[in-house]
Amino acid sequence: MPILSLESDDPFKAGMAHGYLCGDAINRLSKRFDLVLHTIGKQPKADQLPKTLDVLRRSIPVRYLSEIEGLVKGYNLWAQEQHGWQAPKKITVDDALLFHLMPDSMHFQAGAFERKLPPAEKLQSAVACSAIIERDPQKGFVFARNMDWPSFGLSGAYSLVIHRKHTHGQHDTVEVGVPGFVGTLTGMNNQGLSVAMNVCSGTTREIRGMPASFYNRACLEQCRTVDEVKAFARYSSPLGAYHLTVADQEKAQSIHFYQGPEEGHLIRRWQEGQPLVTLNCRYNPNPSCAMHHSRERQALLDDFFQHRSGRSLEETLSLPFVNNWITTHRVVMEPQTGRFRVAFDNAFAGKAPLHDVSTQRLFQS
């Protein structure tokens, strides 16, 4: 299991190490994503979005911007050292920032924002992430999660665990991500707090806060408990609508940003004997589950729990639709025990064998 362990009081240096050590993977991933998203998909490139990226910079904490700047410098240093006819292309800070907007692409269209146009109707992909939590009498909460992200035949194989060790007051973290990505999609901190995000539909016409992946990381680094995440959400909001599922040793809940009355935040809580399932619905006032086959996934999960016959929660991640052609990460977290298991693949990772990540060793190192 590849683990990138970063320890530095200086986020720029941590980013530089990330960019340099993962140079080859970042090069391959950036070329593939550029081909699929910008050449074939005709999505605007970073140099076509100067005003949008300038506004976004103001919403992102300085420490994360500094880390991205370091990542770009480290990667470009690696690129300079390579030779041959397939020399890696250099990347810019704006290129890296645009990559971090992918988790927000369901509700925020950077091209329309740049040109001050109304968002166009988006084509819905077939499936997306699933997060399922239940409480085990011995283990405490078990947090099972499939992360659906188009791998384009590459990003699943190049995925890794990122361990961030802080010595300046923030919590150490273990996260599942890809080289070149400094935000958080799924992770646990040394207090046992565990988080994962799901996308949902929405329309963002103004920059209201930091992109989702940075918001998730801020929660993981600054908060010890679900209640602290809830308090954090009262005074700090993300860019737009998505679902953030969080669990600690005592509580579990999903925060549905901008999905309550007057675009407030809705919260759904785990209840005894009733698994907390978060898909890609809009959950207020009643689930609207047409998006990403959420209705079919919910029906399969309901049937699983009704006829479970002793099967473990992690088996839900192998169910049809829950496990699909863009499932690249399979993660099972236990906040009480600190156990963290993960599997990667370019597709159908929900059936890939889980591997233990030694959080105890990483957090004590």
Could you describe the 3D structure shown?
- With 365 residues, the chain is of the alpha+beta class.
- The protein folds into two domains: 3-115, Penicillin Amidohydrolase, domain 1; 130-364, Penicillin V Acylase, Chain A.
- 30% of the residues lie in helices and 21% in strands.
- It contains ten helices and 14 strands.
- It has helices spanning 11-21, 23-40, 50-59, 62-80, 93-99, 110-115, 212-222, 226-235, 294-306, 359-364, and strands spanning 3-7, 130-136, 140-148, 160-165, 173-177, 186-189, 194-199, 242-247, 252-256, 266-269, 276-278, 327-334, 339-344, 355-357.
- It has an eight-stranded mixed beta sheet with strand order 1-4-5-6-7-8-9-10. It has a six-stranded antiparallel beta sheet with strand order 11-2-3-12-13-14, with no helix packed on it.
- Helix 2 packs across helix 4 (62-80).
- The radius of gyration is 19 Å and the shape is globular.
- The two termini are 18 Å apart.
- The model has no long low-confidence stretch (mean pLDDT 91).
User: Roughly what fraction of the amino acids lie in strands?
Assistant: 15-25%
The fold-level CATH name of the largest domain is Penicillin V Acylase, Chain A
Oligomer: single chain
* Helical residues, percent: 25-40%
Specify the number of helices: 10
Principal-axis shape equals: globular
CATH class type of the largest domain? Alpha Beta
CATH superfamily of the largest domain: Penicillin V Acylase, Chain A
What can be said about the biggest beta sheet?
Answer: 8 strands, mixed
Query: What's the number of domains?
Result: 2
CATH architecture level-2 label of the largest domain: 4-Layer Sandwich
Q: Which structural class should the secondary elements be placed in?
A: alpha+beta
Total number of β-strand segments? 14
- The N- and C-terminal alpha carbons lie at a distance of 18 Å
Low-confidence stretches: none
